[in-house]
Specification:
mainly beta; Jelly Rolls; six-stranded antiparallel beta sheet; 14% helix; globular; ferrous iron binding; oxidoreductase
Length: 175
């Protein structure tokens, strides 16, 4: 198994290196290990010190921090107002809010390509969430604030095989 820790690996890279082994266990054990790892990373104010992270004014940028063993870890840098499409995942999806706050909006599919909003919540700094692709798990992430936000995402996919964790995108329709 090849583990690729990026040259600008975060200070918690030692914690991330244990995740591929956890991914070979049961889904519940993997999610528990990932949740614990993300919680530990969220408590590290120096986590991204010294790293050069890409930023996209008006949008968000994905920065690969770690990859290997069927796991990829990304730092997402969210400009104010940035948002993802409404989407679901082909793999496990866990994230923690490292800086700022993000809003997560949940959706219910009404067809193969359309969805309606069902709930939303603002996720504060330190918040951690994990889910398996038992679907449908449709959501959208938005930076509602006036300041940049950063989240750390752990996905159950090999970044060298898949370009992203997104399985399908949906168009929002009125309920």
């Amino acid at each position: 198994m090849t583990i690729a820790v990026q040259p600008n690996a975060p200070r918690g890279a030692d914690l991330l290196a244990a995740l591929p082994l956890a991914a070979r266990g049961t889904p519940v054990a993997y999610l528990d290990a990932t949740r614990r790892t993300l919680r530990a990373l969220m408590e590290r104010p120096d986590l991204l010190d010294g790293l050069t992270l890409e930023r996209r004014p008006g949008g968000y940028a994905r920065n690969l921090l770690f990859g290997g063993g069927g796991i990829s870890v990304w730092a997402m840098v969210w400009s104010p107002g940035a948002r993802t499409s409404v989407h679901d995942h082909h793999c496990s999806c866990c994230f923690g809010v490292w800086r700022g706050a993000i809003r997560e909006v949940w959706f219910r599919p009404i067809s193969e390509s359309e969805a309606v909003a069902t709930a939303d919540a603002t996720r504060p700094q330190g918040y951690v969430a994990c889910m398996m692709p038992t679907g449908p798990n449709l959501h959208q992430i938005v930076n509602p604030g006036a300041e940049e936000a950063i989240s750390i995402h752990v996905y159950g996919f090999d970044h060298a095989v898949h370009a992203s964790s997104v399985h399908r995108e949906y168009r929002v329709v009125a309920a």
